[in-house]
## 1
Amino acid sequence: MAPDETLDESTIDDMVGEAALQLWAAAQTDFDPFQLPSPEWPDTTVPVRDVDIAVDTGLEEDDVRASLARLDGVKVVVGREAGTVSVLRAIPQDTPL
């Protein structure tokens, strides 16, 4: 899908943040982050690739990557490896910045 010119960065960030959280939570096989308090989340988690977020949101991969860069350390922890940007961990909403 072509990027929608009416979407601003804030809207894109909201879309990417929500999709990243949902996909990241769904990818976890050893625990449910919606049921387990965040201090009890294990360090080993299943990452979610930027391309998967792009497919889920219908946004261009470059737009997703730019949004993940803005959200890194705020809503998600992002990792980069071999040209892939991945969400390594979600940051709980109750975490002080």
Note: The two ends are 34 Å apart (CA to CA).
## 2
Amino acid sequence: MRLSTSWMYQQSVSTMLNQQSALAITQNQVSTGKRINVASDDPAGAGQVLSLNHILAANDQYSGNIDSATNRLSNEQTVLSSAGNLLDSVRSMAIQGINGSLSGSDRAGMATQLGQLRDQLVQLANAGDSNGNALFAGTSTTTTPFVKGAGGAVGYAGNDATQMASIGPGLKVPTSDAGSGLFMNLPAGNGTFAASAGAANAGTLVVGANSVTDPAAWSVGAAANGGSYTITFGAGGSWTATNAGGTPVLDSGGSPVGGTYQDGGSISFNGMTVAMNGTPASGDTVRIQAGGKQDVFATLDNMIAALQGGGSDAQLANDLNRQIESLDQAKAGVTNTVVSIGGRLNTLNQQQSVYQDLKVTYQQTLSSVQNVDIYTAISNLSVQSAALQASQQAFAKIKATTLFDYIK
């Protein structure tokens, strides 16, 4: 068998090139710390690395959304807590205003304070998040949601939509609460109906607490009478009730409802009860109206007007009692929203914890697939470097050997 010089050269060069290629790959692994630097290093592993990187990127995006949502909801919770405290202050002042021993100047001073509190409430309702976007404008975040009109009334310029944050595949959490539901479209009275004394009443009757005591009877009666009633008093506290059309209200047996009211008692029919105190004059009335709406700013305006109106103690008490009922509806809405925000923040915290745990798991899996065992790689680098040097030295000796060496 003849081994030509050309063949030996080719074999030696081919061996050295392969060793140089392997050495270069190992050097790259040692310098980058990665086993897979290009897809050709491990096609299957490269596909797994790509998939894991996509999952990690999506998780990072969801985590960022959670952080933004948490910041926004925390801001909203803080603002609403302040608004709730302000409404508590208004309520205390309104109750104080019912005190018949207050002078006209005392009531005027209270009206001034209520005006300041109303302006503070407008400011809170127009609060923004850390990015300057309005908290209570729905999705119209660049709009100032609550604006005073020429007459001083506050209007709503936002919308009723809710902002949502995507915090997982198919999982969204509301990150806003429209101001229309929080401050504007609030149920009047006790939330079902409002009972108010007639403006022309001549007696000392004051309408107190009222409520639905039998929802089924209330629903039937409201459907039959349009949810509107007028209680009219006669001599000796006798009373009758008519509906919006002036027709007498009938009980379940078909007889007109009515009776005799006594000071400090209550009147009940059609599933509702209205407590009262004082003595009505003949012809005095109490109006019951269901389904009314009133914004919280109008409630404060009405309180101010009542304190500045100079009416009788009974008129002032009736006016402030009705506004306190509306104020309680606003406070209940704020409180319920704060509780809801707490639940949403809890969901966000739990989901963020899940992503933190998943991130560790995915990164460990990615490391096991993509990263190289640095100790093994350094050992391989030493072995491959020595082998390449040996091949180069052997080739140098083969290259220097000729037939004349044997002739000698």
Note: Residues 193-291 form one domain.
## 3
Amino acid sequence: MKNIFLILFVFLSAICSAQIDSTLLKQTPTDTILSKGLNMDAVYNRPFLQVGKLPVSVGGYIEADYQFIGEDGINEGTFRIPRMTLFVASSIHRKIKFLSEIELEEGGKEIVIEFAAVDFNFHPMLNLRGGVVMSPIGAFNQNHDGPKWEFVDRPIAMTEMLPATWSNVGFGLYGKQFNKDWAYGYEVYLTNGFDDSIINNSENRTFLPASKSNAERFEESSNGEPLFTGKLAIRNSNIGEIGFSYMGGIYNTHEEDGIILDKKRRLDVIALDFNSTLPWTNTYIVGEWAWVSVDVPETFSQQFGDKQKGGFIDIVQPLKKGNILDFENAVLNLSCRLEYVDWNVGTFNETGGNISDDLWAITPSFSFRPTAQTVIRFNYRVMQQQDILGNPPAKIGGIQFGISSYF
């Protein structure tokens, strides 16, 4: 299977790099963090390269970085290429579209299908999507492309509490409506869901991202119960966008061959996201906060939390726009990210003391965008993380330098 994807990648790369008459090439507009569209549009609002009148378009992005991070005085530096992503899209009919997003992680060590779905457009407010779909929980899960962000790492709460780029096989409906300065959108999906690994994992905590390692979720459900995900979003062109989303379903294998193994145990997630641009300073603000509730068996220790919460907020201030180093329409940004995650909200049964499996981080950033599609970023991350007993926190800090670009 990996060889098939590698052959596909080489073939498409050859198409993109071939010497073709420039009149046959069409570059679609680029989505940036200042886009006026809804977050639900991010899946298609990317740069694609179309060759002549062929129905297939291709694109993608790459990220590479260097990190020098220290924890309690022990420093380590490393170069990374965390991901390269390939997009392949096709217009089967003017009302039928296909898009796939294939990610090569850690230099090709893993190949992951993050999105591969066919959309049927019946009406602006009624469209059918089926295949490997990306659950619209929060905003980052859908709008996660590296070139759109001023920070080397993805938000901790959206990757280590929620499973970033969480996708699964299923079907759903979506739609959007525009009315002057207002835009309204919704999405609802039924897909395969999580499994027992969210509490049976090497992290020794309730950990939703553990289910991402189960590739069999693309072939069958772990328990026969669908996962529901729904989102409502409202945007005003002068104010910004706010989204409310919910994801929930049965996660455990409660029955096998007609034998009851356990009661049905639920997983529920509520998320709130927003983004806005202050008109008088052009300051861009984007954030997301989520609450997780898991029905953990009574036989598990208290280090497996039944409630979690966390999120982030990014503040991006453009310092200069215009011609910089012979790049037209370049931008220099000064930014800061604030993050917090609590993997175990609650108190100990025996003492009533706080359970302290939490983390906070502050990351100032200086970034240069020679074009809207490319970013060079320099971050300095400061982070403290406490264990479950609330012992003196591990102090983590260091520099991060990276690039990310669509191609």
Note: Confidence is low (pLDDT under 50) at residues 1-35.
